[in-house]
Structure formats: structure tokens, C-alpha cells
Amino acid sequence: MDAFTYFAMSWLSPELLGLTALGTFLGIYVGAIPGLSVTMAVSILISFTFSWDVNYALCLMVGVYMGGVYGGSRTAILLNIPGAPSAIATALDGYPLAKKGLAGEAIGLSTVMSVVGGFVGIIVLALAAPTVSEFAITFQPRDYMMLGILGIMLVGSLSGNSLARGIFAGALGLLIGTVGLDPMTADERFTFGVIELWDGINPVAVMIGMFGISEALHQLHHMNKAVVKQKIARIIPKWSDIKKYMPLSLQTSFIGVIVGALPGTGGDIAALMAYDHAKRTTKNPKVPFGQGAKEGLIAPEAANNAAVGGAYIPMLTLGIPGDAVTAVFIGALFIHGLNPGPLLLLEQPHMFWFTVGNLTLANIFVLIFGLTGIKLFSKIVECPKGILIPLIFLLSIVGAYAINNAIIDIWWMLAFGVFGYFMRLYGFPVGPVILGVILSSLTDENWRRAILTERGSVSDLFINTLQSPLSATLFSIIVLILVSQTPLWTKWLKPKLFRR
Amino acid sequence: MSSQFSAQKTRKPGERLFCFLLVLGSVYIFWQAYNISGFSELSSPGAFPLAASAVMILASCITFLNTLKSPAVEGMRFKDHCLPPIVAIVMTLILVYSVILESLGFILSSFAFLFVTIQFLYRRSILYTLSISLLALIVVYIIFRLVFQVVLPEGIVPEREILSSIKSLWR
């Protein structure tokens, strides 16, 4: 009964309902406008909402997340420019459909299937999270340490072409997270005698700089890209189409949940894997893939929204981000005094059920806003970059100032913004930096606890790791991922093992 | 997928220098990490930063060595493709905005920033830019200052007095 009360909380309160609707609406536009990312929007929102009641802030941010993942598909279909990385696969068949004059139908179908995917993700979250959480209570410090490493490693390897660059970015994030007084011994770390650094570098300033400023600076390279306009007719999809594609949508939704739940993977990977699944399993598509196959539109859209629910599983139960947005979310929860991890579900089960209810509500708003206002939408996404980019800078600077009403946070944000610009320019992924910052204290403190438990003996730690089934599994996964990214595997073992 | 330690096939202008600076920066951070508690214990406050900075040195060295091997992209110049004038000018505008934000206040500095940046990037008539900047500023101010109650620097504009006199008009 309690669970249901918390589930329905955001449905029954007019303010929470309104904020979720507003968040979803904004999210759709943020996700759709190329150059604005959900991660950027959520990072900026944290700075504006940190003084709010946690429920209000969460409603707005959950709405932005859910709407943003869906919104990316709109510009992918209309302009062949994915508004978000999770919509890259959508553009492959969505844009050809639009070119055939079926833009409205493509948007309608992608909306319905996104909502189906969203619901599958939420149901799996509601069913699986309590079990995962109970299991996670038995975790030892060494397991948490390995989870931290796993989270950073997976993103490091997935967000760029080069593992070395990803690892560098992750390690840099870990170091940024250690700046300030050590929480266990109060020793100064990287403070250079500056008292202002005792509290460390504000992660929100790092986030806004890395995602807001650096991304907007990059957009300046593409100021002259012309916008293509599309004709929009029928939007509500045919019932026969919904029935026909429902099995594929459910299959790819499950792919989305599983991929989303893996630390370090998000909607983009889920969508690409779902597209690949649709391509392999659809024997005789009416229209070939890449030329406007509806299967190629539905699969990634169902999967990327299902990945949202999936990404919440490790976030709420283990405190490990599923992707860059959930990393920012974890930061937001910490700022609001919540501690995501196995104890969250035990100590504050209301937060879990509140989040599940809120996600469900946001998903319903995706359906409502997704099927309406498309003509107005197509006008707004054509907002010139010359106006949009200065606004992003303005919001980023004001957002950084609003954290502590201190100009120092603006300097940090600008420094990380410029550094992030060059990192992006030279192929360094910026996502792992944020993950590193978020996972730094988890990894550091649990490493020290683990080694103290073994009285400083690395060999004992190693032996105990191998003797515990859970620790051994985590250790094996880390080793496997590391090996799979090295030339030993890619150049030598893989060609030998998978020779046709 | 060619997911190797470095799959960058070509090198952009300035990439080699950037990677070299990362190596130097990593070595400096390693030295700073060593200064926290040396190599005393594995559970010391400096152990984790030492390990992370060692990883940074290793990763940055691999990246730097790869840039030594990879050929430069033909026809690409640093000032045109990596730090074009548009980016450098906007960076300067942001810097100036950040400097004047506290002294001039949110309203004046943001309006000036929006006007100059939009005029520079969008290049329409001054009247058009003025109205767009003003409209954007009003929307941002209402949403963040009045609705979200975010504290913004007042500077030389007596904002609180103006707001309270507007409120008193309503009473």
C-alpha cells in the first residue's frame, strides 16, 4: 500500500504533475535540438534546482530525461540530424520515410513505440531493482571498488575510438573527485594551500563546463549547416501498424533494458543493437533497411526509451551510473542528501517508488506531447544557432554561479569548458570525466576499506577476491573488458577464434 | 569495430602538442599525488591519487606515442579547423562576460553579452538583435530569477528596490 502511495505521489500533486509535464515538454525540445543534449540540460538544471525540495527537482529532471531520449528522434526523422546520440539509428530509416512524405506517420509510430519501450523499461525496473538491491547489501568494499572501476572502464571504452583516451579521461575524473580534504583522514589533497579548495571542485561546475560550454563551442564549427524542411501530414499511426510491429517493439525493448542496465552503456548502444537485431530478424521487409523500413525506425526507438528504465537499475541499487545522464543524476541525488545504492531502497523506499511513478507519468506525457504540436515543433527546432548558442552560454554561466553564488565556480566551469573543447576536438571522450568525478569517492574509499580489512596485504585481497563468487565474477568481467580492448584480442586472438 | 588502445588514424593540427602537454600535466599531478603521503601505505590518502595519476601518465604516453606515428590530416590548419576565429572570439566574449557579471550585475552584463554574441553570430539588423536579446533576457529573468528564485548578481542595478516597487504597485 505504501509503495502505491509513493508511486502515485507525482500523479496526485498538481505541482509535481505540472513539473513532470514541463520537464517532459522541455526534454523533447532539448533532445530534438541538435547541439542541446539531455546531459547538458540536466547538469544545468541541477544548479537551478538544488535549493528545491528533492521531489520537485526530481520531477523536472526525470521529465527532461524521458522526454530528451525520445525527442532526439524528431530531428533525426525531420532533418536527418539526430538530436541526441540515442537517435543515430533512428535517422537511418526515419529520414528516408520523411523524404517519401511520411514524416508525420514516422513520428507517430516512433512516439508510440518509444512509449511502449519506456513502459517495458519501467516494469523491469520495478520488478528487478528490489531483488538487485537485496543482493547488493551482501557486497564487500572490494566489490564496490570493482563496480566503480567497471563503471569507469565501460564508458571509457565505449565513448570513443580510443581506449587510452577514454581511460585518461576516466582517471582525470577520478583525480578531480579527490581534490579537497580527504573524508577519511582530513589530509589535504591537491589543494595547493588554497582554503577554497578544501571542499573540492564542485562536480556541477565540471559537468556544465564539460557538457554545456564545450559542446556549444563545438557547435560553432557548424554554423552554416542549412536546415531542410519536411511536409507533415498524418501523425496518429495506423492500428494495423501498431499490432504488426508490437512483437518487434517488445523484443527490442528488452534489448534496451538489458543494455541500459549495464554500467557504462546507454540508449545509443541499445538503439544500435536493436537496429541490428531488427535487420537480422526481419526476413522480408516491405522496404529495404536504410530506405525507409518501419522496422528500422521502431527498433531503436523502443530500445532507447527502454534503456532509461534499465539505466535506473544500477543507479538506484548500486549507485553506479548506467550512462552519462545517470551519472549526472547521481550527482543530483547526492546534492539533495540522498545516497543512491543498496541502502536507498531499504532506508528510503519511498524515493524508489516515487521515481518509478514519476517515470511512468513522464512516459505518458511523452505520448501526449509526442503526438501533438509537431507542426509548431518543426518551426522551433529551426531556431537559428546564432541565437541558441549564446543562450546556452548564458544559462551555463548563470547556472554555475547559482551553485554557491560564487564567481569561482564560473572559473572552474570555464576552465573545464575550454579543456573539454580541446578534449573533444582531439578525440578524448568527456563522459568518463564526469563518471570519474562521480565514482571517485566510491572507488577510493572502498579500496582503502578493502585493503584495511586485509591488513594491508594485496595477496590476501587477491585470494579473497578469487574465493568469493561475486568478487571473482566482477574481477573476471574487468579483465575480460580490458583484454577485449587490447591489440592482443583485436589483432591476434579474435581473428583466430572467429575465423570463418 | 577497431577498438584498440588508439584507433585515431590521422592527427589534427595541435594534437601532438596537446597530448604532450597531457603527459607533462600527468607527471606533475603524479608528483603532487606523491607529496600527499608518499609511497607509505596502500590505504593512505595518497594511494588512490597516485594510482589514478599513474594511469593518466600511462594513457597519455600511449596517446602521445600514437600521435607521433599517425600522419597529419592534409589541408587542415589549426587556426581554421581547431581554433577558428569564431571560437576564439566567442571564448573571449564569455570570459569578458564572466569578469563583468558580478560588478555590472546580471541584467546589464547578460544583455550586453547576448546582444554582442547574437549580433556577431547571427548578423541581422541592430534593431532585430536588440529585440531578440531583450526578449531572451526577459524570459530567462522571469524563469530563473522570479519563478525559480535563483540568486543572481545585482551589480549596479538596484534590482531589489525595483522589484519591491513593482510589487507595491500591485498591492
Summarize this entry quickly.
The complex is a heterodimer of chains A (500) and B (171). Chain A is mainly α and 500 residues long. Chain A contains 22 helices and 2 strands.
Main traits of this protein?
heterodimer; A: 500 residues; mainly alpha; 2 domains; two-stranded antiparallel ribbon; 22 helices; 2 strands; 75% helix; globular; B: 171 residues; 7 helices; disordered N terminus
Descriptive notes:
The complex is a heterodimer of chains A (500) and B (171). Chain A is mainly α and 500 residues long. Chain A folds into two domains: 2-140 and 173-178 and 203-405, no CATH class; 459-500, no CATH class. Chain A has helices spanning 2-12, 14-32, 38-49, 54-79, 88-99, 103-136, 141-158, 163-178, 203-219, 239-261, 267-281, 294-318, 324-335, 342-347, 349-370, 374-380, 385-404, 407-425, 431-453, 458-467, 469-484, 487-497, and strands at 180-181, 188-189. A two-stranded antiparallel sheet of chain A has the order 1-2. In chain A, helix 10 (239-261) packs across helix 11. The longest helix of chain A has 34 residues, at 103-136. The radius of gyration of chain A is 22 Å and the shape is globular. In chain B, helix 1 runs antiparallel to helix 2, helix 4 packs antiparallel against helix 5 and helix 5 (106-122) packs across helix 6. Mean pLDDT of chain B is 86; it is low at 1-6. With 171 residues, chain B is mostly helical. Chain B contains seven helices and no strands. Chain B folds into two domains: 15-78; 84-170, no CATH class. Chain B has helices at residues 15-37, 47-69, 78-82, 85-104, 106-122, 126-147, 159-170. The radius of gyration of chain B is 25 Å and the shape is flat. Helix content of chain B is 71%, strand content 0%. At the A-B interface, helix 8, strand 2, helix 17, helix 18 and helix 19 of A face helix 1, helix 2, helix 4, helix 5 and helix 6 of B.
